[in-house]
């Protein structure tokens, strides 16, 4: 059993840090409805080592609603973004793959910044100053 399976079986809602940012950004950038962010945010970041002792990271979404209605926006740039991603057959799978890929990259980056302490420092510097809450592992 891996971490994801164990987390799901124990009722853990999610095992990720920052996928919501991507889940909200992708539909907004292409003029789609971002209302499904909450139901898709329950993802699991899994870190495993294979027999060669190489780290393998993956992200699992039990549910990932994806909108691909090209006529869903009146703004030309948003329509163009959606058309580039999924106007042809197979577009829904490609769009969901893009969302998952971007989410995985953001999870890796965010986890690394939390682990090294730079997440808190950058928020103190650019956002809340000394008011930012320190987060240490």
Write structural notes for this entry.
It comes from Aspergillus tanneri. The chain crosses the membrane at residues 12-35, 55-75, 96-115. Helix content is 51%, strand content 9%. By secondary structure, it is mainly alpha-helical. It has a two-stranded antiparallel sheet. α2 (19-29) packs antiparallel against α5. It is globular, with a radius of gyration of 17 Å.
Radius of gyration: 17 Å
The helicity comes to: 40-55%
Poorly predicted ranges: none
Q: Could you tell me how far the N terminus lies from the C terminus, measured between alpha carbons in angstroms? A: 25 Å
Corresponding CATH architecture = Alpha-Beta Complex
Tell me, what is the CATH class?
Alpha Beta
Give the rounded overall mean pLDDT.
76
Number of helices: 6
The share of residues in extended strands comes to 5-15%
Strand order of the largest sheet: 1-2
Number of domains: 1
N-to-C order of helices and strands: HHHEEHHH
Q: Give the number of DSSP strands.
A: 2
Give the biggest sheet: 2 strands, antiparallel
CATH topology: 3-hydroxy-3-methylglutaryl-coenzyme A Reductase, Chain A, domain 2
Notable characteristics:
single chain; 137 residues; mainly alpha; 3-hydroxy-3-methylglutaryl-coenzyme A Reductase, Chain A, domain 2; two-stranded antiparallel sheet; 6 helices; globular; HMG_CoA_Rdtase; transmembrane helix; hydroxymethylglutaryl-CoA reductase (NADPH) activity; HMG_CoA_Rdtase_sub-bd_dom_sf
């Amino acid at each position: 059993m891996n971490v994801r399976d164990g987390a799901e079986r124990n009722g853990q809602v999610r095992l990720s840090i920052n996928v919501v940012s991507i889940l909200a950004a992708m539909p907004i950038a292409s003029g789609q409805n971002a209302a499904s962010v909450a139901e898709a945010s329950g993802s699991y970041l899994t870190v495993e080592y294979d027999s060669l002792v190489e780290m393998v990271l993956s992200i699992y979404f039990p549910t990932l609603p994806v909108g691909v209605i090209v006529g869903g926006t009146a703004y030309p740039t948003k329509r163009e973004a959606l058309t580039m991603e999924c106007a042809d057959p197979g577009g829904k799978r490609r769009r969901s793959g893009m969302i998952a890929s971007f989410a995985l990259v953001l999870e890796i980056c965010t986890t690394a910044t939390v682990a090294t302490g730079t997440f808190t420092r950058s928020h103190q510097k650019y956002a809340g100053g000394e008011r930012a809450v320190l987060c240490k592992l």
